[in-house]
C-alpha cells in the first residue's frame, strides 16, 4: 500500500526526513495480537517482580503512554491493586535531535519512585537512544531502586548497549524499513505494520 510522501516526523523510534516515499510492506499485529502481547508482558512483569507492591509504570510519550495504561488496567484486574503510573516526555533528554524552540513539557509523573522499581514502557525499540534519554529523565528527578524496560516491538539495530526486559514481539528489520504502531486512543485502531521508506 502506497502511503505517499511524508514530511519530517517521528515513527518507530526514529526521525524520518522530509520528502520520503513510504509504502506499507505488511501488517505485523492486529488488535487481537496486540492484546495477547500486552497480556503476556503483564504476566511476565508480575512474575519477575513477585507481585506489584514496589512497582511504578512510566510510559514514554506518546504511544508508550497508552500502552502503559493498558498494562496498568491488566495489573489491576489480575492483582486488584492500582499501580502508580505516569508519562515521560524525553524530548529534552535526546542526544540525536535538538529541542524545538516552542517545546512544552508533557511529562506527568505525580508520585515518588525513590527505592521503587520503575517499569519504562514504549511502543518500539530501535537504536536505544530513546530509552537512554528516558533513563536520564527518570534519574534527573530521583533515584529508583531499579529500572526495567517493556516494549511492544523490538526491531533491532541497537546503537547503545540497552535491551528490553519484556518484549511483545521481536521483529528484525532492514535499515530502509520502519515500524508503525497505531493505538485506538490516538489512531482509532490497534495495529502494527512495517513500512518501506525510499
Describe this structure in words.
It contains four helices and eleven strands. With 198 residues, it is an alpha/beta fold. Strand 7, helix 3 and strand 8 (146-154) form a beta-alpha-beta unit.
Total beta-strand segments: 11
In N-to-C order, the SSE pattern is: EEEEHEHEEHEEEHE
What Rg do the Cα atoms give? 17 Å
Assign an overall shape: globular
Estimate what percentage of residues fall within beta strands. 25-35%
Largest sheet: 5 strands, parallel
* Percent helix range: 25-40%
**Uncertain regions: pLDDT < 50 for 5+ in a row?**
5-10
**Mean pLDDT across all amino acids:** 91
Total helical segments: 4
Spatial ordering of strands, largest sheet: 6-5-7-8-9
Task: Give a quick set of tags describing it.
alpha/beta; 34% strand; 11 strands; globular; 26% helix; 198 residues; five-stranded parallel sheet; four-stranded antiparallel sheet
Amino acid at each position: 500500500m502506497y502511503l505517499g510522501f511524508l514530511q519530517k516526523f517521528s515513527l518507530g523510534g526514529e526521525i524520518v526526513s522530509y520528502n520520503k516515499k513510504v509504502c506499507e510492506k505488511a501488517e505485523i499485529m492486529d488488535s487481537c495480537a496486540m492484546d495477547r502481547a500486552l497480556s503476556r508482558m503483564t504476566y511476565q512483569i508480575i512474575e519477575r517482580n513477585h507481585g506489584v507492591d514496589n512497582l511504578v509504570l512510566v510510559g514514554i510519550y506518546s504511544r508508550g503512554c497508552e500502552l502503559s495504561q493498558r498494562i496498568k488496567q491488566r495489573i489491576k484486574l489480575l492483582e486488584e491493586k492500582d499501580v502508580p503510573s505516569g508519562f515521560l516526555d524525553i524530548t529534552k533528554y535526546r542526544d540525536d535531535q535538538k529541542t524545538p524552540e516552542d517545546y512544552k513539557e508533557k511529562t506527568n509523573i505525580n508520585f515518588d519512585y525513590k527505592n521503587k522499581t520503575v517499569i519504562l514502557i514504549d511502543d518500539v525499540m530501535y537504536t536505544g537512544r530513546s530509552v537512554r534519554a528516558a533513563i536520564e529523565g527518570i534519574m534527573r528527578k530521583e533515584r529508583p531502586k531499579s529500572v526495567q524496560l517493556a516494549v511492544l516491538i523490538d526491531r533491532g539495530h541497537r546503537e547503545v548497549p540497552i535491551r528490553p526486559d519484556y518484549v511483545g514481539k521481536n521483529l528484525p528489520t532492514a535499515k530502509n524499513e520502519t515500524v508503525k504502531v497505531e493505538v485506538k486512543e490516538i489512531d482509532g485502531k490497534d495495529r502494527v505494520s512495517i513500512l518501506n521508506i525510499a
